[in-house]
Amino acid sequence: MRFSDILTFMDEQAVKLGLPIYFGDNSTINVLVNGISGMFLTFDVPDGGMSKLPPATRKYNVVLQCLDKSYYMENNLAELDTLVRTDLALNKLMSTFVCHFDVDGLIFRKVQNIYDSKKSGWQVTFSVTDDLLNYG
Questions:
Q1: Three-class secondary structure of residue 95 per DSSP
Q2: Whether pTM exceeds 0.85
Q3: What are the strands of the beta sheet with 57-69, ordered from one edge?
Q4: What is the CA radius of gyration of the chain?
Q5: pLDDT digits (tens, 9 = 90+) for 108-132
Q6: Exposed/middle/buried for 58, CB within 10 Å: 0-12, 13-18, 19+?
């Protein structure tokens, strides 16, 4: 598993879900999603690590979000609908992801009213590891 494998997989899954996907840190994503009015995905790989030999393993820490327009503190039913829809889409993507990669430390978080354009949904953080000897 390499960084490019994660990028390719995320892009393929976003296409299958019919959702746009954006890569970058929070500041970059904030700018990219200002004009978006529908549901979308974001992800970042902010850091990682490598264990000592043997075997050499590379670890990437991933942050993935599924977001839509936020109705936080404006319309509770609409906000709950956003949370339900984004949760379902994120679960679809993650159920496929965990079948293709060695994933650990999955943590799901609800996020509400984030970014300048007010988005809500779900975020999952996790680590992806693999044996580097396979890519010698």
A1: helix
A2: yes
A3: 21-23, 40-50, 57-69, 119-131, 102-114
A4: 16
A5: 999 999 999 999 999 999 999 875 4
A6: middle
Helices (runs of H) and strands (runs of E) counted in the chain: 3, 5
Q: Is 104 exposed, middle or buried (0-12, 13-18, 19+ CB in 10 A)?
A: exposed
Question: Of 3, 41, 48, 43, whose CA–CA distance to 23 is shortest?
Answer: 43
| Nearest CA-CA partner of 35 in 115, 112, 110, 120 | 115
In the three-class reduction of DSSP (H, G, I as helix; E, B as strand; rest coil), residue 40 is classed as strand
Instruction: Give tens-digit pLDDT for 44-87.
Output: 998 877 766 666 677 889 999 999 999 999 999 999 999 999 99
Please identify which residue in the block is written with the tokens 């942050």: 63
Tokens of 108: 């799901």
